[in-house]
TrEMBL record:
This protein's name: Enolase 4
Catalytic activity reported: (2R)-2-phosphoglycerate = phosphoenolpyruvate + H2O
Keywords: Glycolysis, Lyase
Originating gene: Eno4
Domain Enolase N-terminal residues, every copy: 49-242
Organism: Tyrannus savana
Amino acid sequence: RREAAEYYRGQRVPERMEEALNALFPLRPGDLYGELANYLSKYSKAPIICKLVGRKVLDGVGQPTLEVEIYCTVKNYEQRICSTVMSCHSQIPENALPETIEADEKERNDSVNTAVEWVNESLNTMLRDLEPTDQCQVDKMLGEYFTNKVEEKKEIQKQVEEEEAAVEDTLAVTPPTPSPASPPGKKKAAKAGKKLSVAERPIPPAEPAEPVLCGSLAIGGTSLAVAKAGATISHIPLYSHIALLKHQQEPPEEITLPLPMVTLLNCEKTSPSKLKLVKEVMLIPPVQMSLKQGIERVLHIQKEMTRLLESPGKMPDPQPAESKKGRAQNPGKKGLPQFLKRISHLGCLTTGYDDVEQLLLVMQTACSNIGLQLGTDVYLAINCAAHELMDYDKGKYEILTGTFKSPDEMVAMYGELIDKFPFITALIDPLRKEDREQWSNICCALGSKCYLIAEDAATCISKLKTDQNINTPMCSGVVLKYINQTKVSDLIELTGILDGQRHITILGSPDGESSDDSLVDLAVGLGARFIKLGGLSRGERVTKYNRLLAIEEELAKNGNLR
């Protein structure tokens, strides 16, 4: 008893109990012991990470991805705090060959298996006993771990290359006979003749795809899971936790919600349609409306658009638009658009058109039928995905089947398109990232009329930061995606740089989206201008719109909504 009394006095237990009883007596709570537990809990040790669990799960399109669970020791007990499911982004275009797609699927499967192994073994040991609220320390350790893995892979590749070179040296004993040397000579002559036939200056070659280290999902998944755990432990929403991290623990007085870019149509480039220039058509509600009202408006347009596409014979002719030559352009005289009765993986309608003007005029019709006007009541954004259009043999973009344009001609074409349809407020990836000169030209020509956004035209987040500068073509803003080895601290640093350079930050969901809605909290906490989530169908995408609406309601209730 004497030892126990000394131990409790050393821990100041009698003093704390007296304080608690004196504080709670005037209140006389109904659950006295519950209030005592709450009062004394502030003297307990901070929760620490005790276990990470990684497992292989499926994303919204049935592809394997990574789930990371965080367990913490809270008041001497192990508790499951939260989990996060990573979204996967494929760099394989829609029109890729079957063998390319198969190789990509195998690579993804291997990457997820490696990521699960990293989480359950190395990262589980490395992050044990750290506080989940210490995001900077966690991300620093994750970054160092990833750097070491990259160096290990380089060493392995170097050894393989040396072994292959040694084998080649042993095989190269006798010189090749002169007979097979003649066909290459003929091929060189053919190539020289081909070069003479090309009048335009050569285009910059395509930059190699960003290498993705096998298992890199573990870094991004663990970083985000720790951020969610930190928010949960602190009893605040994830977006508030992210905002505190970005603003050095000073909570912003007001929070501005990002405007949603809602995908209405997906014009797949593998469809039989002639149009290749448009991948996504997105609607942006006006800033004067609440998000709830804006999404309801987009839903009304979507219903009317569906009705028009399902009954093209009843489609009223839209108001003809005057071309520069004075001729009225009427889509009624063109072939009817092909409507594929299915929902795209982006959560929107899938359809096809003959050209861009037909598509935009039908959009105008759908809006006017329900009393809305494009450019006033709702705005339009187009994802051109120009990197998927380049024909490298011809050195030109194939905007329609059999119709090719050089990078300079693309700039002129976009200028005419915006002049004719001024309700287009944003063009995403109008050019490849390699056409930097044309990016500068299009920004000078159209920068005051619409946003020019780099999505695939921007490099991955890990390479965007170069001497505190944004290593992208000249543009209005960048679409950031939380994928692979991206860490929460990376997004915070990068959005700070973008804010300082007056670039627009857009957080976008990858093609392979999951049901995890953390992306919305990241966008709100980071102060993104727009958020690109896909369409208003498919559960993994709708859950994010629902989260956005819930945040709007919560901020409005607390008086923090700007």
